[in-house]
Amino acid sequence: MEKALPVEKLHTALLVLLRAGLWERAIDDATCFPLSAEAWAELFRLSRQQTVTGIVFRGMQFLPESLLPAPSLLIRWTAAVDAIERRNRDMNGVLSELYALFRSNGLDPVLQKGQGVAAFYESPLLRECGDIDLWFGDPRASDAARDLISLRATHIRRMPDQSLFYRWRGMAVEHHTRLFDLHNPFLQSSAKCLGRENGFVRMPLSGEDGAMITVPSPLVNLLLLDLHVLKHALGRGIGLRQLCDMARACYRLHAEVKPGQMKKLCDNWGLGRWNPLLHVFMVDCLGLPSDCLPYGELAPTARPLLEIVWRGGNFGQHDPELQTSGRTIWTRKISTARSFCRNLRFAVRYVPKEAFWICVGLMKGQFRK
Fold this sequence. Notes:
Elements: H1 7-23, H2 37-49, H3 53-60, H4 71-104, E1 110-112, H5 114-118, E2 132-135, H6 139-150, E3 154-158, E4 164-168, E5 171-176, H7 188-198, E6 200-204, E7 212-216, H8 218-234, H9 240-253, H10 259-268, H11 274-284, H12 303-312, H13 329-342, H14 344-350, H15 352-364
Parallel strand pairs: 2-5
Antiparallel strand pairs: 1-2, 3-4, 4-5, 6-7
Helix pairs in contact: 1-2, 1-3, 8-9, 14-15
């Protein structure tokens, strides 16, 4: 009977394949291969927990045939990747419909993350998509969008943070009330000014001829993704997919962002300790070239963030300590509060002011997923 592969070696193998798929380049460390059938099955499970199944599959194509998993697992993996690609195409179709509807009624929402970030990948359809997150810029536009959707969508409900949730052709959609996941009320004015001053850009959806979406400008996009990763790292947990999104955005956008401006903003927003940790994670774990960072500050090690990633996977959904028997609003709130308390030392070390205001939001029941 084969011995189980040590978890550290399994994590190393996953990151090796992830880097190869993320940048579509040769394997940079083959010392953890070959893998046993049991180890390959566990690696497949981990890649699904971290929602990087398609990217890891792309990385496997850089392995010699002799090191690939058994055909039975390859068939399962191929089927999972095919499902990811089909869901991406469906989501692109839904986005095209929504933008056509909103624009025909004088509205132009900003797409936060999602398919706008997928465009930064070499193979956009391999990135697993989640919800559609839209921001409308001002309360009047948000109200008009709500009125428009209330006549057409299903399962509409107001979330604790006042965002609007509904389903469109089976896809979850949210209209958010703020552009950034920034909880410090003394920074809200600065955040609004940044959005107005730097503006937004239109870009085509991958694989959709003529379909254009509106996304944040490069500086705003990097800050939005940065704060999104931070929020979930402080809360229930963060997975590799969101960190891959940040790395690909840095790779594609760094030349359009002034390092001095980015560093000044991050320092003013209380991210001066957090960003070096995020930076070293992207460089050491994900293989981002250091000259593609928004600015060149690195923490000594990525381990504090890596521990959070391995603990719970995608948004902490696989963390056994946070599993609840029911899915009522109160069990979800309690679970979120527990996860934040568990990460309190991490939060105080890296973003003490933001941690305080997140805590205030939790007490008010306004912390969004």
